[in-house]
Amino acid sequence: MPFPTQIHPVVGSAAEAGADLVAVAVRAGAEGAEPVGGPPGGLPDDLDARLPAPLAELVAHYELSGRAGETAQFAADLGGGLVRVALLGIGEGTPADMRTAGAALARLAKGRSRAAIPAGAPGLAGDSGEGAAAFAEGALLASYRFTLASAPKGPEPVGEIALACGDGDGKPVEAVRRGTALARAAALARDLVNTPSGEKDPAWLAGRAAEAAADAGLKARVWDEDDLEREGFGAILGVGQGSSRPPRMVRIDYAPEGADRHVVLVGKGITFDTGGLSLKPNDNMKLMKTDMSGAAVVVGAMSALGELGCRTRVTGLLAVAENAVSGSAQRPGDVLTTYGGRTVEVLNTDAEGRLVMADALDYAVAELEPDVLVDVATLTGAAKVALGTGMGALFATDDALARALLEAGERSGEPLWRLPLTEEYADTVRSRVADLANIGTSGDYGHPGATEAALFLREFTGGLPWAHLDVAGPGRSMSDQGLLTKGGTGFATRTLLRWLEG
Q: Which of the residues are catalytic?
């Protein structure tokens, strides 16, 4: 769904922007909170006389510390009639602080037509533009909404946020454009995740991925069930065989001129996961329209590569199936043959994501000659138990790749924590009757589910530099807070884009 909020740099001051909410930045200084409303786009010179009390006294009255996202508001006439004035904490003005501040302003301005803030506020101004880009990201993602209701519920998101730029010099146009592109990519991922599974079958998801590729000027190929059968994608077919809605695989190609490396992104696309015959409990199943978050993240990232000027060749692969219960569903104890010819014993039909991704990884290694492989998936509850809902798990075979993804996650406000590929556990994914088993077969080490899943996937990476992002925790949000709205988060979309930009 398109963003209901727009962000624009505008000429003039924040007080002259025609806004019904004007923000005054409050910085966390060494000696306490410090209001900053200077040029460009600053507030009236006689501001204190127009407020209920001098600005510094209001900051003290509301006991503000300047912490990023902290707010207080009151009414005042800044020269064009009564408006709402918001004191907005920006912390130290770092990009992370500005992302938080942007989200806070968007939430505070709900129900209003226009909000404004001076573009000269610390953090928004600056040669790098990172602060302004992050502010736009935060404000747009906090204003995101997905609804199928016949009538709106609650206040509408603010229609516009104006960055007031005084005489127009130093407009952060490029920074806002870049922040908008990053946010739009994450919002596309959220839209795909939030769509109900009654509509979102594998063919639907493949179709939306192909449409997004076409809109971005990219090439896409879709494998239907006959193509998958003919070319030997046995794991994707095995997972999808229990559903009346057959599986798909999608390939999206981005190939800029002069690219000197090739990255393949693989996304798990389980459009609904009952657990198969290893049936999930009802409460867990209610969330399973989001089990294609990895595929959604890959689509979102691919959609923005051209707009962000990425110089790396990138191929996105989506392994898409519905894991259903029926008389034709795969059974515990069945053995599948993957695209690369290896056999896998299915000991738990609810460990299906790693199966479909195995086929996609096999295909990447055999057909695409990548330099780097990265996969993303809502893969294991064990990762969520280990790290909670605010952080994604990272496994990697290459230290430099791991460092680059950790840094990109930090810059994006999507934190990752590297977990070990413990070699002692590798034998747990061996099967007595096949090459591999899709869950651990030994209890000698407890049940390190996230690591076992990663070790299973590593078997299909051909020894290439590879990273696995398990976003089972942060891939969905149970409430509206900060940048997040209840439902799919698109977590890792912006991380992958920042990494690929580098």
A: 280, 354
